[in-house]
Amino acid sequence: MIRVLLIDDQPLLRSGFRALLNLEDDIEVVAEAGDGEQGVRLVREHLPDVVLVDIRMPVVDGIEATRRIAADPALSAVHVVVLTNYGFDEHVLEALRAGAAGFLVKDIEREDLLHAVRVAARGDALLAPSITRRLIDRYVAQPTLGNTGGVEGLTGREREAVVLVARGLSNDEIAERMAIRPMTAKTHVNRAMSKLGARDRAQLVVLAYETGLLVPRNR
Amino acid sequence: MNIGRSTVWASVRHWAIPVAVAALLVVTAAAGDHPATGIGAAAYALLAVSGLVLAVARRAPVLALIVTGLCAVGYQAAGFDIAAVAYLFAVYAAVRAGRRVIAAAASLAMIAALPLAALASGVQDTGDAFTQGRNALELAWLIAAAAAGEALRQAERRADEAERSREAAARRRADEERLHIARELHDSLTHQISVIKVQAEVAVHLSRKAGAPVPEALLAIQSASREASRELRATLEALRDDDTRPPRGIGDIPELVERARALGLDATLSIDGEPYTVPEALGRTAYRIVQEALTNTARHGAATSATVGIGYRPDLVAVTVDDDGEAAPGGPPVPGIGLLGMRERVTALGGSLHARPRDDGGFRVEADLPVDRAA
């Protein structure tokens, strides 16, 4: 059972999402909150698998809520997915930097919502890889100069794994591509994440771009 | 009445110098014991006219220059040895209006003509004639009049420029404010539409789950809200597009066309009219329209060639993109989602955007972006 927590300041949107998610047999909404402050408190209390959090909220916004969840070692198994009204923008990137696993546009189709929640809960693949890459392409134009952020500590195999993560491949697919066992692929990805201080795969990709490990395609 | 009084005051100011100059000239002539009979009467008339014509010096500086010059030569020839004061005023006015070359040419002609007029008036000695001509139009006074006119012209131009840049800044602020309002409006709409859409989604699925047929009305709400949020999102993306760094503008369009060529589209750019500097918001919008149109052409059109046109008209910039794709004439206009959003931006700038199949085949995107180039 995937346990989901909703944080959004629009009650009608929350109730809509809750109804859609609860219709599924393998998903359960355990709690909901109207702002980031209350949301983070409920996350600590319920330890959900996935938190859906609106980016823009009063009191404590989604980015700050993500940051607080990411900063708490007790919540390392909680995957944060941010909700946005728009396709992608700098706020979404900010949320990914803060440690979100991915983002969803609020008006997505039901199937996409369910898929996103399941992928986020497993934590073994990037959410909406093509959109995530477009986002990063667009907003991370240049690697921050002088910020190598521990990239030089990555082994060749780990770098290779990071590139495949950025392409949206899951651990199993990475294993296949690199002709290694899935456990080994997972180890490479996890090592790369901990060396770069990334909490989720999306953050790993952002960091990889910002440190120049991956180069954005020309727009 | 205030208006009446100010009109009177304006005409007093307008006529003060011409009348004063005319009076000065006539009085000087009278004081010099010039007879007011026969040819003398005509000379008095010329003196008066040369003063009064200064009333049009502001509107018709060249005319005033010619009339005052001819009058001066005329009364000199009639034997009235009086300084060409009105002509000096006309030189000042002409230089102030920026007619420097004409003023210089006219003054050279005057310097040559005045001694001849003195000779015609009966002065026997050539040297005396030249002295009289010089007295009538002192070179130093001439230069002083021209310099005064030039100084004022430059001061006025600087003031104009300052005024123009103030206006441009005000217009830019207004443009930005309009875009900001549009953003806010669409922002809050998007929130509400999201709610409608999610709730419709829930209702549809609950009723499916219950095994009942889903009511038509519900499906209509669902599809309308989907469409609405799709459009809103495109609009918002267009409205929020200002954050691109560095900002793209009209000057980046050739690069866009070049890129389309690199992708195998036979794209050409034609620029019509004299390019001028456009406001940043307009340039950005023009760039995005061309970008979206070329993207759409590449995406659906089955087109092999495209023509991008930028027309610099006095009051607007016309942007057109034509392709030779297979869009059916008379068919419904199906702009890409990007153009859908762009329309909002164009509207916020007070312009219009049309995207439709052409009668002779192919698709045409046409945007008129008004430019307020007052002054």
TrEMBL record, chain A:
Pfam families to which the protein is assigned, alphabetical: GerE, Response_reg
InterPro entries in alphabetical order: CheY-like_superfamily, NreC/VraR/RcsB-like_REC, Sig_transdc_resp-reg_C-effctor, Sig_transdc_resp-reg_receiver, Tscrpt_reg_LuxR_C, WalR-like
Response regulatory domain ranges (all copies): 3-121
Residue span, HTH luxR-type domain: 147-212
Biological process terms in GO annotation: phosphorelay signal transduction system; regulation of DNA-templated transcription
MF terms in GO: DNA binding
PROSITE patterns found in the cross-reference section: HTH_LUXR_2, RESPONSE_REGULATORY
Assigned keywords, A-Z: DNA-binding, Phosphoprotein, Transcription, Transcription regulation
4-aspartylphosphate: residues bearing it: 54
Protein's name in the database: DNA-binding response regulator, NarL/FixJ family, contains REC and HTH domains
Native source organism of the sequence: Glycomyces harbinensis
UniProtKB/TrEMBL annotation, chain B:
EC number of this enzyme: 2.7.13.3
Alphabetized GO MF terms: ATP binding; phosphorelay sensor kinase activity; protein dimerization activity
Descriptive protein name: histidine kinase
Naturally occurring in which organism (per UniProt): Glycomyces harbinensis
Domain of life where this protein originates: Bacteria
Domain Histidine kinase/HSP90-like ATPase, residue spans: 285-372
PANTHER family in UniProt: NITRATE/NITRITE SENSOR PROTEIN NARX-RELATED, NITRATE_NITRITE SENSOR PROTEIN NARQ
InterPro entries for this protein: HATPase_C_sf, HATPase_dom, Sensor_HK_TwoCompSys, Sig_transdc_His_kin_sub3_dim/P
